[in-house]
From TrEMBL:
Primary site of residence: membrane
Gene Ontology BP term (one): osmosensory signaling via phosphorelay pathway
Record-given protein name: histidine kinase
Alphabetized Pfam families for the sequence: HAMP (PF00672), HATPase_c (PF02518), HisKA (PF00512)
Natural source organism: Methylomonas koyamae
Amino acid sequence: MTLSFQSRIALLFAALFVAVQALTVVCIYLAVRDNLLRQLDQDLRYAEQAFRQLLVERAERVAGEAGLLVADFGFRSTVTGGDPATIASALENLLLRIHGQRGLFIDPQYNVVADSAGQWQGRPFPYAQALANRDATLTRVWFGVLDGRLQEWALVPVLAPLPVGWVAVAQAVDEQRIARFRQNSLLPLHIGLAELSADSGRLLAASAPEAALALLHSPTNPEQATTVDTAQGRYLGRILALPAAGDEQGVGALLQIKFTDAFAGYRHMLLLAAGVLLLGLLATLAGSVVIARNLSRPLRALAGAGERAVNGDFTASSLAGRSDELGRLADTFVRAAQLAGQLGELRQKDQERRELVASVSHDLRTPLAALRGFLETMQRKAETLPATEQQHFLDTALRQTEKVSRLAQELFELAKLECDDASLNPEPFNLAELLQDVAQKYRLQAEQRGVSLQAELRPELPLVSADIGLTERLLTNLIDNALRHTPQGGRVLLDAWPARGRITVAVRDTGIGIAPEYLPTLCDWDSPLARRARADGGGFGLIVVGKIAQLHGGRLQVESTLGVGSEFRFDLPLADSARTATGKP
């Protein structure tokens, strides 16, 4: 399917707008995404501080309250001289007062003497190294795994007055605590807990297990948030390292935010931007159609001017009055078309001239050859030829010279009419009188041929403005042709009458007529009738007639029927006084 120029312009503007809008949308999305990532990274840093503070502050409070209760004399006496069951009972009383979940008493050899849960009595404490480093680090809060659950440890030494052991209070960091923190947080956080190791780690609890595992097994940068992709979407997260009770494994909290959840706040802005872009696209399509129409209209006008120029109409385009580039282009185009047309006409005329010269040369060769032959015969046999034959040769040679003379005269007249310097000498005159004079001049010739020659007299015929000499030549050619082709007893009639603001002149005869196939090219130099007539020393008469009629702003019209006769018509312009009298423009 071929698109019009207007459609291509509209599609071009629409494509440019769509490309610009798409680039704008991509830039907006990237800007929003980068801004959101920076904002989410700041939010995760704030969440780290809040989560760390929540965990550590509670453990610090528990350690402080436990330290006050452990300093009581009764508790010290119980753990120093009591059995495991008594110590476990004292630990339970301690946990009730500080709202703890589990308590252990550990002797100086790092063995568990009593466990409020009744599971670790007589067993080595799993984080003995933490107790050994306690005095060096002065750290009272650690995180470690006990019985498969992450515990928050508050360690308090028991002095009586020398160290007799430690009280370890454990608070489970489980999914319930994670859920409470998520409820109290203003961010759409997902939290996970894991044991960290050099290779990967082990997930202990998580609100989004798949995302937490992806973050746990991906390379992380402590300075930047890490992005992971899962089947549920994209997550941005950080790993918060917690103080670990053991040296071999670390403990960490995994804080993550789902990108689509965080992006929900920007969704309405993007929808609004999409709506604005859609309206802009519609407006651009409408504007591109208008622009394309305004651009294609002058081009269509130029195309129309070109088509008219091809058909020979060199009238100015509708853009000729414009002062912009299109107007100048239209003027240049019309002038170029006119020059091209004139050049074509010159080439055609030059070709016709060459062919005419060749044809006339051939036509002149025949009578000149005959004339030369007769003259050479008379010269060589002048003494032996009888007088009658000499007279016959002289008469034949004279007729040949008449043919040459007549052909030369018609060529001279035609050349004079075709010459660019030739101009009319119009003057007002009475056409009726001219018709009467020409008819009178050919009256004797008509009588000799036995043909009736008449001229219609119309005294009321207005004056015409024409070249009287050329008009007379036109009439004589037509009358001469009519007389030569009208048999004895025929009739030739001259008439003139006003028609459509001009005077129409007609020459009718009752001669042999002209075949229909000859009528279209009757006034052309290469007409078959003209070639036939040139053999008799003529053939250019009708060409001269047609040229004279054309110089007067008209054309020669012919109607003919074989065996019936012919009618030749042409028209002449009215004189100025006649136009004024008749009211014609």
